[in-house]
Amino acid sequence: MTRKNLITLAWVSFATSMFFFFLFTTEKTIENLLLTILISSMYSFVLGGGNGLVNDFLNKKFPWSEATTKRAVISIVTILITNIILVYFCNYINFVVFQKSATTEEYFLGKYNFINWFTINIALLISAFLHAKGFMEELKKASKKEVVEQKLIAKSANAQFESLKNQLDPHFLFNSLNVLSSLIDENPIQAQKFTASMSKIYRYVLEQKDKELVTVEDEIEFAKIYCELLKTRFEDSVNFIFDIKREDLKKFVVPLSLQLLLENCIKHNLATSSKPLLIKIFTEGECLCIENNLQVREQIKESAGIGLANIVQRYALLTKRNVFIEKSDDYFKVKLPVLAEKPNFVNNVASDDDVVYERALKRVKEIKSFYSNLISYIVVIPLLVIINMISTPEHLWFYWPMLGWGIGVAAHGLSVFSIGRNWEERKIREILEKENNSYGK
């Protein structure tokens, strides 16, 4: 129970006690006022608080979003048993202990059966309202989550597209082929090694292009092969230092991020034998770092920064940790977050997601319609009961609208939360998951 709920129950207790005191109490004394407030508070906090605690417990153990039909059945059974016990307890305290209008034997022998039955119905309606309110709140959260997931899918598709364009960098391929062409005549053996390294690099690109994360060990092994190509191309103009902690090798980073950053180092900096470019790749804290001494190359066209922005965007889809960039007069450094475990992030086929989203919207409308019907029933029926008891207590006509409308609400609920529909949706989800797994393989 939250503080807000306790305050609400206090106001309900006060309003109810004032209503009964001024309209139904003949002797308006301080003693009777305090007794009325005490009795109203007991009913409000015991019935309202008890049902609230039961609802909170069921929300934790049997969330609506995970098992709707099971939760509905458990809720009906639980609130029925709970409210019978709570109502008999409250009425016993009220009539036997406080008002002393009956003995314990008279109370349990049936003197207050009608009052107990009437109070149980009111309590059940209030409890049903609380459960409906809880379901609507969870439904709103699920709808918001669905929207966020759709946005993530769209962002992921765009990021993967940009990633693929960057992975197959045409400048790198063009430069590598030029180096290979010159090596074929000058050093055929070195040309063969260069070709083998290039094949390893592009095999790695094809293997990792659909993955969200790879181990640091795999990424470092790939980076070393890539650095060998750069070393062949630039000779003594570029030097590399690797310093990776052993315990970080089994952690995860975004694939091909080092390739993009190494290419950026070469692209934006001068590298000559007299002023070699030194590139360091090392782990620092929970980050994989790549750092180079700053020897800025004059460029006719300003860099768009697509490669680095692509890495930042892909990390944003997977973790809340940021990619950090440090720049001074002497060096340029990029820190990539190293993840201890893979996040639970699944890319779905866009067309399947559109279908699922449309079905989700339709489902939301059906559920909202049912709960609008249920809430109307909860509000109107108690009013009819009160009117009947005040106007013609000898003729209990409220049974007919309560039963007729109640059957209609129950039928509506069965059509919305039918077991067959849940089974069908579950099988569809299983089929889609199998298809997605087969695509991943």
UniProtKB/TrEMBL annotation:
Keyword set includes Transmembrane: yes
Residues annotated as transmembrane: 7-26, 32-53, 73-94, 114-132, 370-391, 397-419
Domain Signal transduction histidine kinase internal region, residue spans: 159-237
A Pfam cross-reference name: 2TM
Alphabetical list of InterPro entries matching this protein: 2TM_dom (IPR025698), Bact_2-comp_sensor_kinase (IPR050640), Sig_transdc_His_kin_internal (IPR010559)
Domain of life: Bacteria
Keyword hit for Acetylation: no
Keywords: Kinase, Membrane, Transferase, Transmembrane, Transmembrane helix
Domain 2TM: 358-432
GO terms for MF: kinase activity
Protein name (database record): Histidine kinase
Source organism (scientific name): Chryseobacterium taihuense
